[in-house]
TrEMBL record:
Compartments, as annotated in UniProt: Cell inner membrane
Catalytic reactions of this protein: ATP + protein L-histidine = ADP + protein N-phospho-L-histidine
SMART domains associated with the record: HAMP, HATPase_c, HisKA
Name of protein: histidine kinase
Topology within the bilayer: Multi-pass membrane protein
Keyword Cell inner membrane: yes
GO-annotated molecular function: ATP binding; phosphorelay sensor kinase activity
Keywords assigned by UniProt, alphabetized: ATP-binding, Cell inner membrane, Cell membrane, Kinase, Membrane, Nucleotide-binding, Phosphoprotein, Transferase, Transmembrane, Transmembrane helix, Two-component regulatory system
Bilayer-spanning residue ranges: 34-58, 183-203
Domain of life, source organism: Bacteria
Keyword Oxidoreductase in annotation: no
Predominant cellular place of this UniProt entry's protein: membrane
Length: 461
């Protein structure tokens, strides 16, 4: 590999800082929505095309037409000067004035000898002033003064004759200047607006199915029902994506139903066996061995309930209106019964649209877990906009940072930092995260300001 190739590759991997900064600046100002970006894809080529046409074609056409008109007016003025020089009039130039007015559409007047006015400041973007001056200099070759400034429809030209007299010529601006350019611009802008309106109408028809598909996917991610009016629409690719989403959702729901049915059957069979155990132990009498067996049966019953709760945590539940004050006060009261001091602070709207049973189970597991290992628990709830945030802080022993993700795994036990009772199944936090993610949110653990553990729940509502 040559040195040039190495430099090129290094340039492609790490562009100059100025380019990176410009790229970041450009990306920040680009719209993020598909509708706005597609409009830019349509509008930018139209604007560039019209700019090129207006600059290349229109500017040259405008200049060419103006030059030809100015050349014709200057030629007529030169003809008037030739008539004055060829047929001098001692008293009056009425016939020359008449011929110029009737045949050439020029209003002329011949003033006594004098000086021309001082030159007027030339406008910066005046094609007429530049071209007309060049034509008078080329064809007439005499001192002159012109006035093309302003929006007046008349152009005044003064030329000093050989005998010192001043020829004043008043010509229509349209005779020397292509004044109909605005018609072309109006047509260009008008057709562009029509094309843009048509593009927007078709674009809205193509974007709407994508938005519907996004809404259906978000509802499915939050555990809500699919919108009733959803069906595959739009282009073939969008229809195929919508159909694939419907089939995917049906497979997932069918799998969940089969698992729930299987677990219900297993639960029924196991509960029947546990009931027989209890009956046989009750008939066996009282003894230390029987008491130990009863405790084992109770543990098995508790573990079975935990497993079923974990397996059913993603079962579909209708979304309903929930009072945050009622749920949090009930959860706090349950925590106080466990011997902990629980404080609740709620900000924002009280009513939230969420799955009631799942949300209650999630809050109960989190607060119960905090009260089991701490003496003081602070619950902070914030409901603003489209998000619900719950912070649960305790003053317990906490969890090491490298183990805060492991505790969400099913059946994981952290006996060293936060001892769990022997009957625990290691599914409490797994159920919590499963419920949060089924709502489209998540649960994270971090260090609490109270030197314990902070559990943060963030849900879209």
């Amino acid at each position: 590999m040559t040195t040039i190739d190495a430099i090129r590759r290094e340039y492609e991997r790490y562009p100059p800082r100025g380019l990176r900064r410009m790229s970041r600046w450009f990306k920040k100002r680009l719209p993020t929505r598909l509708y706005a970006r597609t409009l830019l894809i349509i509008i930018i080529p139209i604007v560039l095309l019209q700019s090129v046409v207006a600059f290349v074609f229109m500017e040259r056409h405008w200049q060419t037409v103006t030059q030809r008109l100015s050349m014709a007016v200057t030629r007529d003025i030169a003809a008037v000067i030739d008539m004055i020089d060829t047929f001098p009039q001692e008293g009056s130039y009425d016939q020359i004035v008449r011929i110029a007015r009737e045949r050439l559409e020029l209003n002329v007047a011949i003033d006594p000898a004098g000086d021309l006015p001082p030159p007027r400041p030339k406008p910066f973007f005046s094609i007429l002033d530049q071209i007309l001056s060049e034509e008078i200099t080329r064809q007439i070759q005499r001192p002159f003064w012109i006035d093309t400034v302003g929006n007046s429809r008349i152009v005044e030209i003064r030329i000093q004759l050989d005998n010192g007299q001043i020829l004043r010529v008043f010509a229509k601006r349209s005779q020397a200047y292509a004044s109909n350019t605005h018609i072309f611009l109006l047509w260009m802008v008008g057709t562009s607006l029509v094309l843009l309106a048509i593009a927007i109408l078709f674009l809205r028809g193509q974007i709407r199915p994508i938005l519907k598909l996004t809404q259906a996917a978000e509802s499915f991610g939050k555990g809500q029902k699919m919108p009733e009016d959803f069906r595959p629409r739009g282009a073939d690719e969008i229809r195929r994506a919508g159909l694939a989403f419907i089939q995917m959702r049906e497979r997932i729901e069918r799998q969940m139903e089969q698992r729930t049915a299987m677990l219900s059957g297993v639960s029924h069979d196991l509960r029947t066996i546990l009931t027989r155990f209890r009956l046989q132990l009750a008939l066996a009498g009282d003894s230390p061995e029987i008491e130990s067996l009863n405790k084992d049966v109770d543990d098995m019953q508790s573990m079975l309930d935990s497993y079923l709760s974990f397996a059913r945590s993603d079962a579909e539940e209708d979304v309903g209106s929930v009072s945050l004050n009622e749920i949090m006060e009930r959860v706090a009261a349950d925590g106080r019964l466990r011997g902990a001091t629980v404080w609740v602070d709620i900000e924002g709207e009280d009513i939230v649209q969420i799955r009631p049973n799942a949300f209650n189970r999630m809050m109960t597991n989190l607060v119960a877990n905090a009260c089991r290992h701490a003496d003081n628990v602070d619950i902070s709830v914030t409901h603003r906009g489209k998000w619900l945030t719950v912070l649960i802080d305790d003053d317990g022993p906490g969890i090491p940072e490298d183990a805060r993700e492991d505790v969400f795994r099913p059946f994981f036990r952290l006996d060293e930092a936060r001892n769990q009772d022997e009957s625990g199944s290691g599914l409490g936090l797994s159920i919590v995260r499963d419920i949060a993610r089924s709502h489209g949110g998540d649960v994270t653990l971090s260090e609490s300001p109270n030197k314990g553990l902070r559990a943060q729940v963030r849900l879209p509502v």
